[in-house]
Amino acid sequence: METFRIGAELEVNRIGYGAMRLCGARVTGWPEDRENALRVLRRAVELGATLVDTADAYGPEVNELQVAEALHPYDGIVVATKGGLVRRGGGSGGWPQDGRPEHLRAACEASLRRLRVERIDLYQLHRPDPAVPFADSVGALRDLRAEGKIRHVGLSNVSVAQLEEACGIVEIASVQNEYNLGNRESEDVLKACERAGIAFLPWYPLEAGALARPGGPVEAIARDHDATPAQVALAWLLRRSPVTIPIPGTSSVEHLEENMAARELELTRAELEQLG
Q1: Is residue 258 part of a domain?
Q2: Residue 150: which H helix or E strand, with range?
Q3: What confidence tens digit (pLDDT) does each residue in 3-35 have?
Q4: pLDDT, tens digit, 9 for 90 and up, residues 168-208
Q5: Residue 45 in contact with residue 253, Cβ under 8 Å?
Q6: What average pLDDT does this structure show over 217-232?
Q7: How many domains, the chain?
Q8: Closest of 162, 169, 164 to residue 141, by C-alpha
Q9: pTM of the model
Q10: What range defines the domain where residue 90 resides?
Q11: Of the residues 58, 74, 123, 179, which is catalytic?
Q12: Is residue 77 in some structural domain?
């Protein structure tokens, strides 16, 4: 099983689990079946997901509580969470940013309590706040790391320029941007991470865009391997770069097992060329 060392020390298997979908509708509140959420989390770990990604905005707060209830004390598991987004209006008010240092400090402290830990393995800035100097937000995470409350600092939804700026402030262990077969706008960020040995966690990893059209290459490749289109999308991400760690999310044990089985799918060079 292929692994990657986040921050050159936290070794994780190269398909993780994104826990966001375990919340209620619109990523708000508790799901109708609370026990199912716990089963999915525990099954993800049984299947080899050693990186579990969450955020204080998922629920809000609910998702971190689910992770703690199901998995604490996290033996052999890296829990990554995020701060810097807030929820308003029961999920209908969008995901506004709050990158003020005082907010990030309070958010980190609250995540520590919910996750029942004294230090968070990987704490990520959820999205840069245009109303706050980026260096101030990253500096807050640097300070929290210096205090021992964060082990490694990550970023999410950033450009190459922002990544380079952040690297001048604190060591960056990971970047989490949208990236998949159908959306490769962050290709330059992925390449920058590859050059620097930074983990790249593609979110929305199963999207395949036009390549997934009926009769298209994803469907054909899936058929040839007796696989699913989702497995092809994940297998492509694993081959795209040695630093990618997809974190597909689902609230279904069946879909979870399907996603994790993508590690066994070996795409040929010709198939990779078809996918571009």
Answers
A1: no
A2: strand 150-156
A3: 999 999 999 999 999 999 999 999 999 999 999
A4: 999 999 999 999 999 999 999 999 999 999 999 999 999 98
A5: no
A6: 96
A7: 1
A8: 169
A9: 0.96
A10: 3-208+242-249
A11: 58
A12: yes
Angle between helices 160-167 and 187-196 (to 10 degrees): 30
182 within some domain: yes
Told to judge if 58 belongs to the known catalytic residues of this protein, a careful annotator would answer yes
In a domain, 225, yes or no: no
Q: For position 212, what pLDDT does the model report?
A: 86
Residues 6+ apart with CB under 8 A from 195: none
CATH number, domain with residue 99? 3.20.20.100
Confidence of residue 90 (pLDDT cuts 50, 70, 90): low
The Cα-based distances of 232 to 34, 111, 161, 220 in angstroms read 30, 34, 31, 10
Burial 75-107 (b: 16+ CB within 10 A, else e): eebbbbbbbbbbbeeebeeeeebbbbbebbbeb
Q: Distance (Å, rounded) from C-alpha 12 to C-alpha 248? A: 15
In this prediction, residue 88 carries a pLDDT of 78
